[in-house]
Amino acid sequence: MEMVVSEHKQQLLDKIAGGSIHVGVVGMGYVGLPLALTFVERARLKVTGFDVDGNKVSRLQRGESYIMHLGAERVTRARESGLFEASSDFDRLAEPDALLIAVPTPLTAQREPDMKYVINTAEAIGARLRPGQLVVLESTTYPGTTDELLRDILERTGLSCGKDFLLAFSPEREDPGNRSFNTATIPKVVGGVSPEATTVAAALYRRALDRVVEVPSSRVAEATKLTENIFRAVNIALVNELKVVYERMGIDVWDVLDAASSKPFGFMRFNPGPGLGGHCIPLDPFYLTWKAREFGVSTRFIELAGEVNVAMPRYVVDRLQEGLNLRGKPVKDSRILVLGLAYKKDIDDPRESPSFELISLLLERGAQIQVHDPHIPTAPAMRSWPNLPELRSVELTPELLEAQDAVLIATDHSAVDYQLVAKHAPLVVDSRGVYRTPQSNVIKA
Ligand SMILES: NC(=O)c1ccc[n+]([C@@H]2O[C@H](COP(=O)([O-])OP(=O)(O)OC[C@H]3O[C@@H](n4cnc5c(N)ncnc54)[C@H](O)[C@@H]3O)[C@@H](O)[C@H]2O)c1
Questions:
Q1: CA of 266 to the centre of ligand 1 (A)
Q2: Ligand 1, from 99, 103, 229: best to mutate by most atoms within 8 Å of Cβ?
Q3: Which atom of ligand 1 is nearest the CA belonging to 53?
Q4: Selection from 272, 269, 204 nearest residue 22 by Cα
Q5: Does ligand 1 come within 6 angstroms of the Cβ of 32?
Q6: Where are any strands of DSSP class E within 80-226?
Q7: Residues 167-197, buried b or exposed e (16+ Cβ, 10 A)?
Q8: Do strands 406-409 and 428-430 pair parallel, antiparallel, or not at all (unpaired)?
Q9: Cα separation, 41 vs 38, whole angstroms
Q10: Alpha carbon 120 to chain centroid distance?
Q11: Residue 309: in which H helix or E strand, if any?
Q12: Could you give phi then psi for residue 354, rounded to 5 degrees?
């Protein structure tokens, strides 16, 4: 066996070193597409992007991008280089030497890991797996997914993990819209099911990325990713709780955070907001909660952070209601403009955005809602809010603002003119700390 392992390992390492390794990326979303492009741009490797969504595949083939912060020119250039192609022909999964999986890992309605995308992908790969391939899971998931779930499915082929194929986990750390870091400059953690898998996967990523951090196992790599996101979820909950406490005391939490951030050690800034959003922070921590149950342990920090963060949209709506009340208005039949649908500033990603919860709560209370988001012309159908009406971004004009009873800032996009908003809207509810100097018609929430 040793000989076979080292033979496959050596062949892959030679192909990596020689630049002839063919990389397949499964799932051309927010994670998979930049990863695929980075391998083309940085390492000049041949890359095939696989996706079940034929529309995405056609657009990539035409050199188009469907993700705002990834300009179409990057896709066009990758296509023109002849190194990149997209495909929904899964029989071609046998072609690449390395397959990197970046498919969704959401939660079910019962807040349990929804592994169907990973399972479908594993089965699709399993049906074509050939000796000598490297498979790396990138999707965020509970510890054990790679060396239990994925390994079991791939071994149903009769091929053996570590002997015939190599298997590893390497979490993605994309931060969409962050100008200081990108796929190539964010250090990448890699943990294999076997030491050979770690070595080969790390060598592959090193071709394209600035820094690769090898860890002892796929489980350590899986737990690392969850730890990072749990850290964020818990700290965001903490500042959200402080926001509520300080507001009662007449203290502006943003002033406090600005001041606390001057401490050069032992403090890391997190900002409060109207609730959690995005694919990662609201969901990933519960992957650990679920797995922990199998071991008879509870994850109280995670549950508490979830509770505090989930309560935020209601808190913001209550603040808005208080603001209207002071002006003698009920929420019912009030005209409210929600500013921002994306879950954070300067991106076009509305997934799990608290804006939808805010809108849904306001509609429940009888408000008339309009929305403006410079990056999302029309909101796509949202799985968690199936009953919302179609939300189309309206143009932000003085007349529009004057016609509102309140404007609710849910996302602090840089492309919005907040002075215009404060000048013309009768009441502004600011859940993002956009206005730092007090203004008579602005309330913080
Ligand atoms: N978006 C982020 O910033 C981010 C950051 C770190 C980690 N992650 C993790 O990375 C993973 C992918 O997230 P994403 O944001 O790229 O999701 P996404 O929804 O943007 O992309 C996933 C893609 O996979 C495709 N897909 C679904 N099933 C498939 C299948 N069986 N075969 C091939 N393609 C399939 C979908 O059509 C979609 O294009 C998730 O586990 C997520 O938690 C995301």
A1: 34
A2: 103
A3: 37
A4: 204
A5: yes
A6: 84-87, 98-101, 134-137, 166-169, 188-192, 212-214
A7: bbbbbbbbebbeeeeebbebebbbbbbbebb
A8: parallel
A9: 5
A10: 21
A11: helix 300-310
A12: -65, -20
Pure H helices in 140-217: 151-155, 195-208
Residue appearing with tokens 């079991």 = 152
Amino acid in position 396: L
Structure token pair of residue 398: 């003085």
pTM over 0.85: yes
Tokens of 48: 């095939």
Tokens (6 digits) for 181? 């870091």
155-193, pLDDT tens digit by residue? 999 999 999 999 999 999 988 778 899 889 999 999 999
Host H or E run for residue 212:
strand 212-214
Residue entry with tokens 């694919």: 279
Report which of 209, 203, 167 is spatially closest to residue 188, judged by C-alpha positions. Answer: 209
Asked if 380 and 364 count as a contact pair (C-beta separation under 8 A), the reply is no
Which tens digits make up the pLDDT trace of 252-306? 999 999 999 999 999 999 999 999 887 788 889 999 999 999 999 999 999 999 9
Is 267:261 a contact under the CB 8 Å cutoff?
A: yes
